[in-house]
Amino acid sequence: MTATVDRSAETLTASLDAGAERIAAFLTGHRDTLVLTGAGCSTESGIPDYRDENGDWKRPQPLQLQEFLGSETVRRRYWARSLAGWEALRLSQPNASHLALARLETAGYVGHLVTQNVDGLHQQAGSRKVTDLHGRLDMVACLNCGRSLCREVFQARLQAMNETHEHRVAALAPDGDAELDAADYETFRVPACEACGGVLKPTVVFFGESVPRTRVQRVFDALERARAVLVVGSSLMVYSGYRFVRAAAERGLPIAAVNLGRTRADDLLALKVREPCAAVFDRLMRYFPTT
Ligand SMILES: [Zn+2]
After folding, report:
1. For 217-238, what is each residue's pLDDT tens digit?
2. 140 CA distance to ligand 1 centroid (A)?
3. How far away, in angstroms, is 193 Cα from ligand 1 center?
């Protein structure tokens, strides 16, 4: 249940308006803000998030890298679920948050955007200065020779090899994974690398896997130039994103967050708006009429 159910429409509207006004003032006061986004930024695009209001898991924990590497059965299950999940993810569209953040970048309020999401919706909305902290789901790479291919090509091969496989999506997960009903993973066939026969993996950072060092450094470089940090739709429970907020706090930068639930950095925040991201950003753009 969300925090909004026991509020009247008037209270909700007033609260959203007030939240949007405060975030607008924050951005206006600090140009070149570093924005960090998480799953809550994409929920309005139909991609569910991982955690509830307390930051606890809503669904079974995502796949760990070691499980994927260590078992062919696990890889069959992963790709069988992902075959179905990708179709839904690929059709998703940017929402008011993505669109507003792209416009705010053009206007100079957003200096750089770091996202924990792997859906590519920020770029689709027009943001250019983006670091995909956990990679992108639209590419697949060989773990042996490094050759990469576009997910659409891989998807076609996956489909062709499993034309008779039954797959019905029960629930979509934010990483393009999907829970399937009555799937027989043992009969599912997974294509290998065409160049070397190696194991293919989506170019996303799995749980239990480190973010590449150069990517982390790029965000720290952006943080050097930033005058403030705004967190959008992330509980910051994963260290890979939390470390930037902690570093910003150590440097004395003001930090704001728009997030429906608790965040790991609540005690570091100068401003917290506890509302759905898309509703806040939809209203926020009123304060930037020429943007
Ligand atoms: Zn290969």
Report:
1. 999 999 999 999 999 999 998 8
2. 11
3. 5
Distance 195 CA to ligand 1 centre (A): 5
52 C-beta neighbours (distance < 10 Å), count: 15
The active-site residue out of 30, 98, 134, 167 is: 134
Non-local CB neighbours of 229 within 8 Å, separated by 6+ positions: 33, 34, 35, 36, 223, 244, 245, 248, 253, 254, 255, 256
Q: Cα 217–35–250 angle (5° rounding)?
A: 60
In the residue annotation, 122 being an active-site residue is answered as no
CA–centroid distance, residue 178 to ligand 1 (Å): 26
Full-model pTM: 0.88
Residue 188: its pLDDT value, please? 87
Q: CA-to-CA distance for 127 and 125, rounded, in angstroms?
A: 6
The pLDDT value recorded for residue 1 is 45
